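Q: I'm writing up a methods section and want to include an example of the input and output format. Could you take the sequence below and give the corresponding predicted structure tokens, formatted cleanly so I can copy it straight into the document?
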Amino acid sequence: MCQSSEFGAHAIYRKPLGLWFLVSIWNATFNFRTCQTLVLVLTFFSYASYHATRKTTSIVKSVLDPKKAESGFIQWPIPNSIYLFYSQHWKPLQTSGWAPFNSPSGTEMLGVIDVAFLSVYSLGMFFAGHLGDRLNLRLLLTIGMVGTGFFTALFGVGYWLNVHSFYYYLLVQIFAGLFQSTGWPSVVAVVVNWFGKRKRGLIMGIWNAHTSVGNISGSLIASALLTYGWGWSFAVPGLLISAVGLTVFLFLPESPEAVGIDKNDALLMPGRTRNDEPLLEGKEEKIKDQAVGFIEAWGIPGVAPFAFCLFFSKLVAYTFLYWLPFYISHTAIGGEYLSNSKAGALSTFFDVGGVFGGILAGHISDHLDARAITAASFMYCAIPALFLYRAYGSISLFWNVAFMIIAGLFVNGPYALITTAVSADLGTHASLKGNSRALATVTAIIDGTGSAGAAIGPLLTGYLSTQSWSTVFAMLTAAALMAGLLLTKLVATEVKVKLRVRRSARSEESII
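A: Here is the clean output for your methods example:
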């Protein structure tokens, strides 16, 4: 079973109630492998549900603001002009849509809501990482999921209560972003607590498909429910993530100790050796686990370059996440405009490419043992992919889907790699001397910095799209280039290491 006498009452106290019930009442048996599988499944669906709720806003955008993107351009920055449209004196552009978002400034309003959500999400990430290394990860994740579900559903309640106040929707999204910020540091820390370094890139690349699965399921659910009223597109995903959150509370073992598994015993399992350097390994020189400080975590080699690379990488990825359905519905494909529901469903192919991109990037980085080279290469390849989608995606549905999948592969590949395997590697860096209590903090720093870019991208798109979508794609291309360039020093270091290893191997062969 998952419990051993060595851990006694403390293990029973921390064991999730659902597992305790299964062990005590049904006499169920949970070995180490079973617990690993349980962790992968629960964390997969938990973060997929986070992304499903996050995707709903992009699907509903075209219903709230149905006008064509060519309508009036408002210069940036325009705080005074924006606030005029938030008052009771909004002027609708047409009878359809939802006030105040169907006003001449509706597109910009939606951009402001996106940036409010993502800004709070980004800032909250740093605090969530700090808490994640100090509190029970299972409880933190549960609170985040239930809170996210509540405020996601509350956004949809505005439909039934006939709410037309911008401030209502803005405030709801701010609180939703705050609760969403608990998710990523928690799930990464839990997964890394259970898995070692061997094939980490491939395993976490496959596991990271939860992002695309969440985006796809969120798009399909929200699109299907638009027929019954856009409020349902928020309410149902909100209820689903709350239900998954309760399941996490009942069954997720956040670490081997939580279910009474001795870390050292886990090392002796068949197929696992000390050379695998698992995160469960207890090293002789290991210092007493103390949560790593925020500034200290920034000083870990590689954290800053990858964090700023992710800033630009997520800027591109989240612009697609929030604006791709809107872009598709406002762009003639094969000479025809698609409905909002069809545009939302079509946008899921970007995430299909993202699934393959995450797996491919993880496998390549494992094979080459070169995270920076892999991430930078993918970002450089994203540049022509973005150009092809913008230039030729409108020819037909076939070419739109084909170039969308290619763009999703190269955009989401490095994004997935950095937020999973790279974060896990840096969170267990040699400079920490075996201290495992830096995982959530490092993950939060990297993804929190990336989320700042995720906030800026959709905001700028809200303004630039009213001028020209070509301008938006120029911004995305520049961001992809910057993401690759920021890893130049790390790429050079990895190349030098590869060359040194190759020269050493040749020297040994010549001696033999």
